[in-house]
YggT family protein
Amino acid sequence: MEILADLIVSAMRVYSMIIFVYILLSWFPNARESSFGQAIGRVVEPYIDMFRQFIPNIGMIDLSPLVAIIVMRVAANGVEHLFYTFLL
């Protein structure tokens, strides 16, 4: 059971790092249009789009990826706490 908990939490943390890389790609011209950027976009955009529905842009700044990372990290910590408190 501990291996499953570690696997889920690690996957959530890796996904939040992928979102961070996606944010960094926006700083470089045409980086999101590259094949690497498009592959990351296909993985990350469905999750980020959930937050774009509720979080308005501030000027040209999109804060939804940042909120998505925060929510993912809080969820990973919650899953870790649940596994180690109640199941192990």
Observations:
- The helical segments are 2-25, 35-52, 64-87.
- Residues 2-87 form one domain.
- The chain has a mean pLDDT of 91.
